[in-house]
Design brief:
about 55% strand, 20 strands, four-stranded antiparallel sheet, globular, single chain
Length: about 325
């Protein structure tokens, strides 16, 4: 039995052990280090994509080689700026956020969210695709427009952050905007997790409705789901927040057999804010991956990446026999 399924069937929270901060923003002219994602390169070496903000608060995509040794990740050298905001009027003219790396058909793709600001503090974020060169750390937009964006199914925006390819079928669990509500503090966005499928990862068919309902009337946003399948089960970690209640992101968990009907079990997520330090106020934007029979999670801390990102390792010895799947 795969360790993830064994952990789930134990009926106890996943035992994530925090392995420390990987990146603390320190590059001149840039702040933040958000939405980290990883792909194996060779040996214990990875390529990490993440996002920083320039002085105008425009998100930009960076790449870095990194090494995992003894359960910790270390970036190599200075991260390389590989993709900036798009041309005026394009869907990514106000910033780009790398969110998911997908190897397929001899190529490696970086799916990214393009940002476009609207009046009164509202915004649009749709999905683009770029081609990565893992050896030379370069990134080239494949299209000038989005591959998944506003349309009849997604009237506000469509940000794909979790993508799986199985038997030639592409699937994504993506954030789609539901509504904007005017409050005393300004416009409040409402968006949730939806599902779409594709034959090529470019042209998508969206399924109607939320695949993960809001918990209650206070919850209003899900951030960056990450999905992995093992032993016939789909495992999803995601960020969520509510107002009032939890005004800053926390990480939740759900599992599914078919990817359409999910059982939400935030009590099993297994990772939360620390008592103090860089991830003591917020924990968000998880990205789960495997290497060398271990399961890892990259995640953000305070301020949506203002304090950078860290790594957690699943401690398989930290689970026990319990209540089983629920």
């Amino acid at each position: 039995m795969h360790p993830l399924r064994r952990s789930l069937e134990s009926g106890r929270p996943f035992a994530w052990r925090k392995a420390g901060r990987v990146y603390a923003p320190d590059m001149p002219g840039f702040t933040h280090g958000s939405h980290p994602c990883a792909i194996h390169h060779a040996g214990d070496r990875f390529v990490i994509a993440f996002t920083c903000r320039d002085a105008q608060q425009r998100s930009q995509a960076f790449l870095s080689h990194a090494t995992i040794r003894d359960g910790a990740m270390v970036l190599e050298g200075t991260p390389r700026l590989v993709m900036t905001h798009g041309a005026p009027g394009t869907f990514d003219c106000d910033g780009v956020i790398g969110v998911c790396i997908v190897p397929q058909g001899g190529r490696t793709y970086l799916y990214y969210v393009g940002w476009q600001n609207l009046p009164e503090g509202m915004w649009i974020c749709d999905t683009g695709r770029a081609i990565l060169d893992l050896d030379n750390l370069t990134c080239t937009r494949e299209f000038q427009g989005p591959v998944l964006g506003r349309d009849k199914s997604n009237p506000l925006f469509a940000a794909a952050t979790a993508i799986l390819v199985e038997d030639g079928r592409w699937r994504t669990w993506y954030n789609s905007g539901i509504s904007w509500t005017r409050t005393e503090a300004g416009w409040l966005h409402h968006y949730g997790i939806h599902h779409a499928h594709s034959a090529d990862g470019v042209d998508w068919t969206c399924d109607p409705g939320l695949v993960l309902p809001f918990k209650d009337e206070h919850e209003y946003a899900f951030g960056r789901p990450t999905v992995i399948r093992r032993d016939g089960i789909l495992f999803m970690w995601f960020a969520h927040r509510a107002s009032p209640g939890i005004p800053t992101y926390r990480i939740g968990f759900a599992h599914s057999r078919d990817g359409m009907s999910w059982t939400r079990r935030d009590d099993l997520a297994g990772i939360d804010v620390s008592p103090d330090g860089w991830d003591s106020e917020m924990i968000c934007y998880p990205y789960v991956f495997e290497h060398g029979n271990r399961t890892y999670m990259l995640y953000n801390g305070n301020g949506y990446g203002r304090t950078g990102f860290g790594l957690a390792v699943l401690d398989e010895a930290g689970t026990g026999e319990g209540a089983g799947l629920a």
